[in-house]
Amino acid sequence: MPDYDADRFTAIYDGCRQRVWAYVVSRAGRQVADEVVSETFTVAWRKLDEVPEPPLPWLLGVARNILRDNIRAEARRTSFVAELRSWTEPAEADIAEEISERSALLKALASLPEDDRELLILSGWQGLTPAQAARVVGCSPITLRVRLHRARKRLTEAASAYPLIRDAAVEQGMSPQVRIATGKEA
User: Fold this and answer.
1) Residue range of the domain that includes 177
2) Cα–Cα distance between 150 and 12 in angstroms, integer?
3) Angle separating helix axes 130-137 and 141-159, nearest 10 degrees
4) CB-based contacts of 169: which residues, under 8 Å, 6+ apart?
């Protein structure tokens, strides 16, 4: 059986490699073609029993999925690099002040109960809607909104202990609720 598998794979590779490579080049250029073709045939080898006859459409579908995954990964890397760059390149404020504010806010967040932190991270950092976050934590969207409101209030209270955050909130024109919670009414 292994000889048959090796012969079948060799026949598929010899018969389809050029067309798969041409397809990938037409979609993504020569720089990535060799890598994507290699990955495509690695998948074909691992799933040789699933490769239908004729194999070309299946192989092109695999190559398409690999390209799509590569594009997503590149978008994530680009986004991550941009985020890191935003942390290291000051816009208008002093970098030391921004780092101190961020550090103080993270300390305030860390002082909250785990459930509050989870809600704040799901909504603020992960960008989930209340309905999506409710599914994650296993409650109704209305219940989540109430819990999130309370968690935000507790974060505001915890952050008021840090003068850098309190002063930054006032300077940035934060809501009256934040100003009152931080002891700085407008």
Assistant:
1) 93-181
2) 61
3) 90
4) 159, 178, 179, 182, 184
Q: Which two tokens stand for residue 30?
A: 């020569």
Name 24's Cβ contacts closer than 8 Å, sequence gap at least 6.
32, 33, 36, 37, 40, 63, 67
Same domain, yes or no: 80 and 10: yes
- Domain termination site, one of 26, 61, 85: 85
pTM above 0.90, yes or no: no
In the chain, how many domains are there?
2
- 46 shares its domain with 125: no
Tens digit of each residue's pLDDT (9 = 90 or more) over 76-130: 878 877 776 666 565 555 666 667 777 777 788 888 888 888 888 888 777 788 8
Q: Which amino acid would we find at residue 46?
A: R
- Give whole-number Cα distances, 118 to 7, 112, 122, 124, in Å: 54, 10, 6, 10
Half-sphere exposure of 12 (CA within 13 A, CB side): 27
Q: Interior CA angle at 96 toward 93 and 162, to 5°?
A: 95
Which among 174, 170, 164 is positioned nearest to 184, based on CA atoms?
170
CA of residue 19 relative to chain centroid, distance = 34
